[in-house]
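Changelog excerpt: complex records now keep ligands as SMILES alongside chain sequences, and the structure block spans every component. Example after the change:
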Amino acid sequence: MSSTPEFQHTLGKAAGFSGTSLHKGEKVTLKLHPAPVDHGIKFKRKDLQDEPTIDAKIDNLKMVERATTIGEGSVRVHTVEHVLAALFAMGVDNAIVEMDANEPPIGDGSAQPYVDVIKRAGVAAQEAPRKFFDVRESMHMEAKTGALLVLLPDKTFRISCTQAGPNNRFTQFLSMEVTPAIFEREIAPARTFVYYEDVQSLMDKNLIKGGSLENAIVVRGDAVLSKEPLRFTDEFVRHKILDIIGDLALVGHRIHGHVVAVKPGHGANAELARAVAREQTRRDAISVPRTLPPGEGGFDTDEVMQILPHRYPFLMVDRIVGFEGETKCIGMKTVSINEPFFQGHFPGHPVMPGVMQVEAMAQVASILLFKLAKTSSRVGYFMSADEVKFRKPVFPGDTIFIHAELTKARGNRLAKAKCHCVVNDAVVSEGELMFTFLDK
Ligand SMILES: [Zn+2]
């Protein structure tokens, strides 16, 4: 690992290309745009009203059948893995992938067209350090398909992959460190391959209208059918590595680790990405400041009460410890045995009700929203809570650190926040909250 800090990168300018979409066989134009620090990769549907964006995050994963689909609400983008692999491996951390359809142009079935666009746009350093996930302990993932993925500690990002077709035909192995130069030369040109048995029914159902021998290699028995001869004798395993890179890009952090993959597929790749993202959330949660800076950067109880209308016994935030940028903040609450809910929850066995923790999350998120809106004429109403999990009991004497991160603000009316509560370095509860604003 180099000792100089690595910086985040975006594109030097916008660039794009047009082609055919795989599933619908329609013409689609893709354009990559630069994006600010900490933006990550977002897809933008230019063909839909309000041009909604979808974060390329594992939380937004919707489907792993044949290709990787992400979505938010009812909006979807399909087959995102090749463009994500190209952006990630070529060193782009922040970008907008704008498209006028629900999937990128398939090109020749490899990541080559996206690499070409990235090189035309150029890659530019930004003034913020890159975020890395350092693998500390091995993790593994096994799927019913026979896929096995192991993630081991490593100072670089490496992939060792074994691919095997039906009856172990076309068994291939390759191991490499993933750097922009190696990716461009060894991985990006490797095309999608499919087994004839698998595509026959899809072709019959007209589900891959854009599919042809120009953008996929078709394997039928021992025969390899494609318009252009194989680009590498082991092109299949190279494409498997390409898909792993694209699917793991959904973690959002760059990985220092060694992926050992046997017969990988999108499902198993996505499960590993999910496990890494979950571990990252846990690490973020326990890196809470343990001393409370007075005043500076945060809000004391008085300031909290100037913003929140809540009062005893329903004020669930003692103070705001600090803000991180415009979208994150941490609040705290000391849970005393004098809390009124302990009288009945439960007599002789005081445990803080989970719903009160959700209320605490909602109050901290409201403060964040208030600060963002910079107005007191509107009040945020808590609309819904998703993915709520209670992981550990909270007892009298515990201090809860309440984390809130704004993940989406749609127009001026709706906002979404990802929240979790931490006690003694462990996540005790979490949830995704939705708010709407109304004038007071
Ligand atoms: Zn692929």
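The pocket of zinc ion is lined by residues 81-82, 192, 239, 242-243 (CB under 6 Å). The chain is about 20% helix and 35% strand.
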